[in-house]
Design goal:
By secondary structure, the chain is mainly alpha-helical. It has 8 helices and no strands.
Length: about 170
Amino acid sequence: MNWCILIPLLVGAICALLGYLLGRLLGGGNDDSDRIAKLEADLEACNNLRSSIEADLKSANANLTSSFAASASAIAFDADTAKAVFGKKIKENDLTIVEGIGPKIQELFHNHDVKTWKALSECSIDKCQSVLDSGGERFRVHKPNTWPDQAKMAYEGRWADLLKWQDELDGGK
């Protein structure tokens, strides 16, 4: 047998064995899989926490938005104050409180989805005129120039200001 071949094989086997043992001793072996599993669990926990925080934030934002919209859009109607100023019972969102609007004109506005003082206050004078025009010739003579402003006063509960102004108006003009 040739010793020249056997010596390098023996040295290679010893080196491989020593390399394996040193790698296990110093490198930690299977610790990487444990570390990866721990990191994946931490990542999953972070993702769950982020999702929870995002849901809470979205819910809080929706609640804040709806609260703000409700408070900004809803001014409480005080029937007693309106009655004290006008001397008669005033129904909420009764468009006939506006100088120049009677029951028939109120009906026209209702047919055009203008059913509240707030909605009328947000109408342009041109829109008011087009509502009147839709009622035919007998309604075209009315001048709705002050109607949105009167409706805004009613919506805001400024009854004394509204009555004072109406005393100065001539049929809503």
